[in-house]
Amino acid sequence: MTQHFDSTKKNPQKSNTCVFHNADGASQDFKSPHDISNPKLPEERFQKILEATPDAMIMINKEGKIIFINTQTEKIFGYRKDELLGQLVEILIPEPYRNRHPEHRNKYFLSPHVRPMGIGMELYGLRKNGEHFPVEISLSPFETGEEKTALAAVRDITDRKRFELTLQEKNVELENANLAKDRFLASMSHELRTPLNAVLGFTGTLLMKLPGPLNAEQEKQLKTVQGSAKHLLSLINDLLDLAKIESGNIELKFEKISCQSIIDEVASNLAPMAKNKGLDFKVIIPKEDLIIKTDRRSLTQIVINLTSNAIKFTEKGKIEVEIDKIKVQARPYVIIKIMDTGIGIKTEDQTKLFQAFQQMLIPGVRIEGTGLGLHLSQKLSALINGKIEFESEYGKGSCFSILLPLA
Questions:
Q1: pLDDT of res. 348
Q2: DSSP 366
Q3: How far from 122 is each of 69, 83, 157, 290, 398, CA to CA, in Å?
Q4: I need a labelling partner for 252 at 20 to 30 A (CA). Which of 75, 134, 156, 180 fits?
């Protein structure tokens, strides 16, 4: 059974009409219910539109017989036109779905409307060579004279499905790698920390000269060992904390605490470090005791990280840690500011400041650390409902602020 469009029969008075001939010479007028742009759509334009689409276009009648296909249908399914015209559309449907399709087709013709086919289902087409392939199908009612027909747009989504499968496999691999990393870090935390704590303990005992006196060279070397062990322990703690945060295994204990007590603890630990560099370390605390509900350990770690950075990148001048109460959109907040007169941050470096393993490069200066401090601080801040902001001018200094809601 062959069919063709007759381009010689044109009736300018007919609206959106084209003439279609079967092999026996009988003709049918095809009239679309959807006027695209021009009320008079010649048959040549109708054919060109269907041929130009990237999808297979298949028209069937109420009995399910194929009465029109475009060239893309031949390419996708591997059939010639004369092999499909007049055949039931089920020839293009794999065996597992073929038997139920006539029932679905009949229901559609009882209430024809534009819609996607098989919502929420995996649909497959059947090529001439027997190959199954994933498809998307959209259905539209189409008038052909007095006969109701349906026009199906079929899209081959093999490449998309292959990409989605590859992406899923990569996601599974990545998830497994992250789980393996987290398990490794968790299992190694005790093994890594125990020997380091022993090194620090024995080094401290020797430096206190409890076993006996030390000469100047011995004391110098022991202090080097102690400093390296403390640095290594700090790196291990940072990595373990990051692993816990990313795996969602970090434990938080929210309780009402005094901001002043946090700052006092940080100052007692870090003021000597600033003093050793010849920096003025100043704490500004209001008379009113400011109470917030937060996780004490996380907030202390954030303030220590920010204050340590301020000391690390400041060679002269001062470090100021200040607590104040402010309002943000009429809500009361506590703000903890850490200000320094250090090197500051270049504009081009500010966008990557909170990324993991990013470190500022200062010519001629070796900066120790992994570049995890600010990254961890930002993660912890989000977990305790806080926010870190900063202002910096290269060559003049920086100010980092932690905003936390008042209890």
A1: 83
A2: P
A3: 23, 27, 11, 59, 56
A4: 180
Q: Provide the 10 A C-beta neighbour count for residue 297.
A: 14
Q: What are the phi and psi torsion angles at 393 (to 5°)?
A: -130, 120
What is the bridge-based pairing of β-strands 132-144 and 147-156?
Answer: antiparallel
- pLDDT at residue 73, as a whole number: 94
DSSP state of 396: T
Instruction: Find all residues with CB under 8 Å of 152, minimum gap 6, and list them.
Output: 56, 57, 58, 59, 60, 89, 117, 137, 138, 139, 140
* pTM higher than the cut 0.85: no
Cβ–Cβ < 8 Å for 20, 7:
no
Mean pLDDT, 10 residues at a time, the chain of 407 residues: 42 41 44 41 70 90 92 94 94 90 89 78 91 92 79 92 92 84 70 83 89 90 86 79 77 92 91 92 91 92 92 93 90 94 88 73 55 86 93 92 89
State the Cα angle at 2 between 154 and 153, rounded to 5°: 10
Instruction: Give the integer Cα–Cα distance in Å for 239 and 192.
Output: 12
Q: Distance from CA of residue 97 to its chain's centroid?
A: 37
Residue 89, burial from CB neighbour count under 10 angstroms (0-12, 13-18, 19+): buried
